[in-house]
């Protein structure tokens, strides 16, 4: 099957959108192929051409989302060879643009009725990205327990995302990027004192 075929792209897009609609009110395990196909407007045979089960569709969606998150996370580093917290340019921060792009998924992740497994998938990815980006830095040895420091930083990012979600994602991604830059720069100034 040609993944670049417009029909395949449209079908998969419809299935991904239907999955998000159904996840708003149902746990992943409760979503049947029939309900998914009804919501997407495709037949079961078409679904099975692309996926073995609903969880495979979810896994594909999550993989695409986390790949985009990774690209967004590393954008400031690509823009500056040696990234300094005090010189962080908010226009290079792309994580909030990523969240806006995938807002329907993040509405599910941060919904109090949703499974915590979605939250922890996101948390673990952010923590792993932080670990990769900080592991080579000389200051990583300054912490007694590096894992706690990574957990703290990942939860700080998650906290901003939860706060943004709590406001209905009303602020622009650029505004949120500026807020993150302000917080990071404030921390950098305090560390120099």
Task: Describe the structure in your own words.
Keywords: DNA-binding. GO terms for molecular function: DNA binding. Pfam families: TetR_C_8 (PF14278). Residues 9-69 form the HTH tetR-type domain. This is TetR family transcriptional regulator. By secondary structure, the chain is mainly alpha-helical. It has 2 domains: 1-51, Orthogonal Bundle (Arc Repressor Mutant, subunit A), CATH 1.10.10; 62-192. Helix content is 69%, strand content 0%. The chain contains 9 helices and no strands. Helix 1 packs across helix 2 (33-40). The radius of gyration is 19 Å and the shape is elongated. The N and C termini lie far apart (60 Å).
The number of helical segments is 9
Taken from the alpha-carbon principal axes, the silhouette is elongated
Helix and strand composition category: mainly alpha
Taking all residues together, what is the mean pLDDT?
Answer: 86
Largest sheet: none
Low-confidence stretches: none
Straight-line distance between termini: 60 Å
Helix content: 55-70%
Subunit organisation of the chains: single chain
- Rg, nearest Å: 19 Å
The count of β-strands is 0
Q: Please report which band the strand proportion falls in: under 5%, 5-15%, 15-25%, 25-35%, 35-45% or over 45%.
A: under 5%
Can you tell me the number of structural domains?
2
Order of helical and strand elements: HHHHHHHHH
Keywords: DNA-binding
Protein name: TetR family transcriptional regulator
Pfam families: TetR_C_8
Organism: Paenibacillus montaniterrae
